[in-house]
Amino acid sequence: MTKKSVGILFDRVRWEEKELGRQLEHRGASYDMIDAKSQILPLDASRFSTLPERVLVRCVSFYRGLNVATVYEAHDIETVNSARVLDLCGNKLRTSQILSTHGVPTPKTVVAFSSESAMQAIETIGFPCVLKPIIGSWGRQVVPIRDKETAETIIEMREQQSDSMQTIFYVQEMIKRPPRDIRCVVVGDEVVACVYRYSSPDNWKTNIALGGHTEICKITRELEETVLKTVKIMGSGVLGIDLMEKSSSEFVVHEVNGTVEFKGAQMVSPHSIAGRISEYLVSVDRELGQRIKA
What we know:
By secondary structure, this protein is of the alpha+beta class.
């Protein structure tokens, strides 16, 4: 059986996965769609000869994608992103810590590990602030805390849940920003798309999945420097860097996405984001890469 050069690992086929497949086909690339939910992976090498040499990890489930990537890498299958990058991006606490340690501007953040200490963490940041889960996407369970009564209610609700993750209280300052944030899609060391994400009229969150919309954002020198410094620290691959504006030339990074969704960005981008990702995925194939350049 001929070994496919590229694989797309998924657990849900969204617009992005379909478009990536179309762009790979357009470039003459041989690729395989791999359903992570059906994977049975022995830890020896008995089945791995039929898998692609390079796999783009697109799982919605953080833990599923991370652990499949871990096994693949142990058997010399390159994953994009790597297990290390996926792990750093998938855990907001780890993201904030490594960026802060290396001098990338981030929102002021305090973490507490019990209901008893949560209020102290919130009061350390001050009102208003934002309480987030350290694992999760699409803005789920991201809550603005504007007063002590709200804080006490949320802490009590979390305390009642039988989930150890709910006892980790990740609290950030609420940045005074325009009603938007910025998403930059980075492939390798190139910013291939940069858009403003505006919240819907009835929601302060800017997630496109929650009804927000996008507009093109000009890539300034200051913005590009912040984004590329973030990529250098987190590790290169295919990343979504989310930032907020503190001023016209000052940005803070509040999230890095290891399996970035880009449908909203594509709606306003002048070139194919999936096309740039596809070119990156097949760049190790010299013959195919020469055909693309031609």
